[in-house]
Amino acid sequence: MSRLDSHLEAALERITRAGQRRTLRATTLLSDGRIERGGRTMLDFSSNDYLGLARHPLLVERSTRWAGRDGSGSGASRLVTGTSAAHLALEARIAAFKHCEAALIFASGWQANAAVIPALLAAVPGIAVFSDRLIHASMHAGIAMAGVRQHRFRHNDLDHLEALLAEKGADAPARLILTESVFSMDGDRADMVRLADIAQRHDAALFVDEAHATGVLGPEGRGLSALVPGKVDLVMGTFSKALGGFGAYVAGSRVLIDYLTNAASGFIFTTAPPPAVLGAVDAALDLLPGMGTERAHLAALGDRLRAGLARLGLDHGASSTQIVPAVIGPEDKAMALSAQLEEAGFLASAIRPPTVPAGTSRLRLALRAGHSEADIDALLGAIEAAAGPDR
Ligand code: PMP
């Protein structure tokens, strides 16, 4: 074993001893809220294919057709030869969808956050950053890359944000608030109207990650930033969840997008997304405005699941979306429940530290438009049976 590998083995052993060793398992996303793993078809409450678009015939057809027409690879990064007419047309469509002046496509949501944030912070030395405690790891990565200290406010506690804004960074050249419109582990929403008002009153720019809201919430699935038109300076979202594809977008003013085109490392130094990826997103954008029935169905399923969990005495936090946590508490209990559910034919992943705070290990239940009310009731029955009367 090489010297490097022996260090890596020791590090892996530490991860194993902490009970946090993970492995990859081959899984296939199916239609109708199902998933296949290990030769078994299960009800899926773990993926983010909220609207069932990942296997939609229109997306698959356009993705295939664009690959057939334009090839499998884009050949280069965007600023060299990787920009096709399809990239520019799709960016214009996204800008229109988000009611922003301009938009830019990124290879993934992680990459967008990790690229955009350091680019923004580099343009304004001394900028003061205010972030919700539960922002996604990719935003933390971006802030860490920039080497900037952030003022973190308690999750969704806008009184705390206001207090921090009153106290910190008054003499900074600019201030930036970072948050998500729907939080990925809790399924709760930021109060966009109040946030926009606070940002305006304190002369701070607002950056909102709409990874889990895009396609699902807001008029025509345009996200919660659509509730405060023109008041979010920078909106980011992914194509990889409700849009059933891959990649991400950032939307905002023309000057913001022109700047990022010239300064965001994770945009400049990576190969442009290929035609198949663009085709799927283009088809998803055709479908989204007409998916009001699916969005309403998802909302109703969420209400049904939350009511059922409450009946079982399980805390679902402040969830009000298609993401519903069932907070179990101790890590081993959440893991055991998830394993029992899998045995019973329900894929409901346990989320544990460090992804969520210690003592709040949970099942993160993600709903799909393909689920029926009977599917939700079956899940609740299985949770009740697995968790037992002495829970
Ligand atoms: N932001 C949030 C809030 C997310 O939940 C995720 C996905 N886990 C990302 C960004 C990253 O997006 P992607 O999966 O497209 O890299």
UniProtKB/TrEMBL annotation:
Residues 41-383 form the Aminotransferase class I/classII large domain. Keywords: Biotin biosynthesis, Pyridoxal phosphate, Transferase. Coiled coil: none annotated. One of its GO terms (molecular function) is pyridoxal phosphate binding. It comes from the Bacteria. Its cofactor is pyridoxal 5'-phosphate. The keyword Transferase applies. Pathway: Cofactor biosynthesis; biotin biosynthesis. It catalyses: 6-carboxyhexanoyl-[ACP] + L-alanine + H(+) = (8S)-8-amino-7-oxononanoate + holo-[ACP] + CO2. It holds the Pfam family Aminotran_1_2. One of its GO terms (biological process) is biotin biosynthetic process. Its EC number is 2.3.1.47. Homodimer. Belongs to the class-II pyridoxal-phosphate-dependent aminotransferase family. BioF subfamily. This is 8-amino-7-oxononanoate synthase.
